[in-house]
Amino acid sequence: MQGLITGLRFDDNGLIPVIVQDVETKEVLMMAYMNSDAFSLTMQTGETWFWSRSRNELWNKGKTSGNTQRVVEIRLDCDADTLLVLVEPAGPACHTGERTCFYRGIG
Description:
Elements: H1 2-7, E1 16-22, E2 28-34, H2 36-45, E3 49-52, E4 57-60, E5 69-76, E6 83-89
Parallel strand pairs: 1-6
Antiparallel strand pairs: 1-2, 3-4, 5-6
């Protein structure tokens, strides 16, 4: 795991964007950021952990809502600067209660 962490390209703030996708439906559920601690916790626990830029703290998806995400697979893009996390969701991904954070169309 350490080798993978050192291969990731975090930005100047120590963050890497993460796209979370339902492993079964392939629907994009959410986009968030991880720092190295969130990535390590995700790898260790098998559940998604992220870095909250607004609260400036780690957060475990579903800890308070119960809407957890069990990690099935993590993929790295070609530039090693974005992660795709395939999950089995237990409940909606969005804080609004919607299944996905991408429920609004434009135009």
